[in-house]
UniProtKB/TrEMBL annotation:
<feature type="domain" description="EthD">
    <location>
        <begin position="10"/>
        <end position="88"/>
    </location>
</feature>
<dbReference type="InterPro" id="IPR011008">
    <property type="entry name" value="Dimeric_a/b-barrel"/>
</dbReference>
<dbReference type="InterPro" id="IPR009799">
    <property type="entry name" value="EthD_dom"/>
</dbReference>
<protein>
    <submittedName>
        <fullName>Ethyl tert-butyl ether degradation protein EthD</fullName>
    </submittedName>
</protein>
<dbReference type="GO" id="GO:0016491">
    <property type="term" value="F:oxidoreductase activity"/>
</dbReference>
<dbReference type="Pfam" id="PF07110">
    <property type="entry name" value="EthD"/>
</dbReference>
Amino acid sequence: MHKLVVLYSEPADPDHFRDYYVTNHLPLVMKMPGLLAWRYSFDVAATDGEVPYFAIFEGDFTDAAAMAAARASQHGRRVAADVANYATGGAVVIHYPVQHGPG
């Protein structure tokens, strides 16, 4: 499995971010080709100190190639372009292959 993570910094208007994200952005995300599962939270907390992020998104893909194909698709480019409509604080996008421990 390959995970895509988006870390959102504090936006200028948190209420607009939440509303736009749930009403407009997530419906676009759900249609990304190859997306197996997704989750998000606006309740990001740090175990110690201040948390540097306002919100987080995680998306699961079969592998890196499936994620790259989804992001490069016409729909994936539409999803990426939509971020400017709500994430005024910016976003950090990371991805990685998931390693599983025993059990």
